[in-house]
Amino acid sequence: MIAEFGLVALWLAAALAGLQLVAGFFGMREGGEQVAALARPAALVQALLCGLSFLALIYLFATTDLSVKLVAANSHSAKPMIFKLAGTWGNHEGSMLLWITVMALAGGLIAALERRLPERTMLATLGAQGFLALGFYAFILFTSNPFERLPLPPVEGNGLNPLLQDIGQAFHPPNLYVGYVGLSVAFSFVVGALLTRQVTPEFARVMRPWVLGAWVFLTIGITAGSYWAYYELGWGGWWFWDPVENAALMPWLAATALLHSVSVLAARDALRAWTVMLGVVAFSMSMVGTFLVRSGILTSVHAFAVDPERGSFILMLLALYIGGALVLFATRAGTVAEGERFSILSREGALVVNNVALSAILGIVLLGTLYPLLTEAFDVRVSVGPPYFNPVAAIFFLPMLVVLAIGPLLRWRGDSFARIRIPVIILAAIAVVTLLAVWLLADIDLLPLLGLALAAMVAVGSVLPLRGRSLRRLPIAVWGMVIAHLGVAVALFGMAADTAFQQERLVAASVGDVIEDGPWQVELRSVKPVAGPNWTAIEADLGLTYKGAPAGEAKPQARSFWSPPTETSEVALVTRWNGQLYAALGNQAEDGRWQLRLWWKPFVTWIWYGGLLIALGGVLSIIGRVSGDLRRRVAARKIADRKADEEALAAGAGA
Amino acid sequence: MKGLRYFLWGLVALAAGLFGLFAYQLTQPKDEFVESAMIGQPIPAFDLRPALESQPGLSSADLADGQPKLVNIFASWCVPCRAEAPQLETLRDSGAEIVGIAIRDRPEDVAAFLQVYGNPFTRVGADDISEVQLSLGSSGVPETFVVDGNGVITYQHIGDIRPEHVPGILARLREAGA
């Protein structure tokens, strides 16, 4: 019953998306007032129905209803409840339902609350949002029905991929989807603004919280995903330039450029074409990423069920939406006039550099990700990895960091070099001194060396905008910027320090052996079997000493899950403020010794602290912007009230 | 403004090219795995001691005796190897000759493993340092190679053999001349 109920709700939601599309696009024409009135209610009811459909699926997973194919294929009655629930979206069908649910909720939210834009633009936006949603509903209903029943229910479910049986992983995909959906809302606003030729600062202000929100979620998603790969895959790296990682990185790069661009448009009415283009590109990248991951067209460590039919369907949607938006933009290019002018040495100028650099990095990552696909068409199999991505992306990333340190010091419209000479000299001195000091003291590669120098420079540069200002009266959005930029410096420091100074030991150890790794001494005290709810493992007991002082213990495991049979490496991490000891247990050699892999990774955790700081900056920025918008709205209402009062008074006096 | 318009139409063309590439690749059959560079090559020379007391070991000469064979790379400590054991039995019952290479294993463990999960092998060699495994271009356990009667590798199957893989592997074996 519940499965059928969920399916019916989903079909009805799809029908309402169709209604929203018609009401939006026809309502914005002249004489369309009657249908126009349906657009907002359609979006609201659609959100409700889609939400119910998703709740139905959660219920089926919670009760392990094995007559539903998706539950039987992905769940197991012995699984802990939290992972049963997470199993709802830990698979292709469920994750697509979650995606469309978030999308429907976002559509409902705009329909209910957003009143600042001209109503025609809003209708066009809602129409575009309905159009997007309809495509995704069609995708789910025709290729990936999550509520499909089995003729004969099995006795037991097929488990969840143990690699995904992890609390972090349970919340990782939803987080990314919220980010993608935020970008889809921004995209709808862009389409609405293009259709009604209203690329205005007001449009930018309305779009900004969605872009910021999407960007915060994507930032958290990438940070968490990087940490997940770090401790779950057991390879000790934090970024592999894997296609799935790139699929998440590309929309983030576009969203980062977009949020800077949208701020310029809101504040200065400049960078209109940039904002529109980045709005289209950011959503395109989230779709391209989804396509690459779900179609199985590229090979990756992050396995998803692969089905060429689904791939073709997403590709059709991709061509329809992205192609359509680009053509629309090209035909409307004339109406997206340039906006306000500015000199090269200005805040706007620095942000254009930022946009160009981020777009270039995006292009580089896209090219690297798709290159194997391109050469495969000519029967050459290649794999593109860090030797390409690192140096080529650095060519744009490193100069961008210099601009990041200096840009916030510049004034809008135009500035003179003389005014910012002193801080620029200080920043340059910091970079040069750090570079020389590290170069003299340690023998490390060029990229991490530059990274350390620029991290120091950006760290100081990011707090310079606070200079000479009252910290208590500083707008929250400025705090957001400062903290986010500081986060970039912190993350960069972590990456460079780990790359430059990590120490790895791979040994075959017998019980009782002591291994040295950097400042650590690790004693293999024992190796014994342990059992969990649905796995068994071999666990090593490691006694640790840091610089001669006892520093606790670490217990890495080699775990075997039995449903489905899979082996994973549960690494043990010992975190200090200045880094992490990373221990992974391997196989037993025939002479009874155990393979043990130890890394001392100085300051590696700063990468993720930095990522969280960047996200925190985004959150502060949202709070600052939204409260600013609300204040402005209250002020506007007061002025309108007073005007009405005065008019009433004048009318009374006249009578 | 003209520049922007040209740029945008360029972008449309680029997107169209990209979608074309995607569409083309979607229609291509997809090989999930990194193939061994050894496919089509004669098997490298090796001579492994027996992994069991009851059965002979394996050398490269045994693989060039005119009879196509399956070479199964396995280990007693490998869980997916247990999962594929019934399929190896099916393959043997369908007439395939299967030889095994036990990776980093002890004779008593191999014997116990084959006792519990069945022994489909005519010969089992012991590869204590993964030397032969690596020279075959195999990077994990289990993997299975099809070798023709002249000792040339014609096919590689990565990962455990599931029931649905059995017909394909038998077909490969027939192509190799069985």
Automatic annotation (TrEMBL), chain A:
Main location: membrane
InterPro entries linked to this entry: CcmF_C, Cyt_c_assembly, Cyt_c_biogenesis, Cyt_c_biogenesis_CcmF
Membrane topology designation: Multi-pass membrane protein
Residues annotated as domain Cytochrome c assembly protein: 89-295
Subcellular location: Cell inner membrane
A GO biological-process term: cytochrome complex assembly
GO MF, one example: lyase activity
GO CC terms: plasma membrane
Domain Cytochrome c-type biogenesis protein CcmF C-terminal: 315-625
Keyword terms, alphabetized: Cell inner membrane, Cell membrane, Cytochrome c-type biogenesis, Lyase, Membrane, Transmembrane, Transmembrane helix
Domain of life: Bacteria
Entry keyword annotation includes Lyase: yes
Function noted in UniProt: Required for the biogenesis of c-type cytochromes. Possible subunit of a heme lyase.
Family stated for the protein in its record: Belongs to the CcmF/CycK/Ccl1/NrfE/CcsA family.
Protein name as it appears in the record: Heme lyase CcmF/NrfE family subunit
TrEMBL record, chain B:
PANTHER family: THIOL:DISULFIDE INTERCHANGE PROTEIN DSBE
Main location group: other
Assigned keywords, A-Z: Cytochrome c-type biogenesis, Disulfide bond, Redox-active center
Source species: Alteraurantiacibacter aquimixticola
Keyword check for Iron: no
Upper taxonomic lineage: Bacteria, Pseudomonadati, Pseudomonadota, Alphaproteobacteria, Sphingomonadales
Pfam families (UniProt xref): Redoxin (PF08534)
Family listed: Belongs to the thioredoxin family. DsbE subfamily.
GO molecular function, one term: disulfide oxidoreductase activity
Cellular compartments per GO CC: outer membrane-bounded periplasmic space
A GO BP annotation: cytochrome complex assembly
Subcellular locations according to the entry: Cell envelope
Domain Thioredoxin: residue ranges: 37-178
Protein's recorded name: DsbE family thiol:disulfide interchange protein
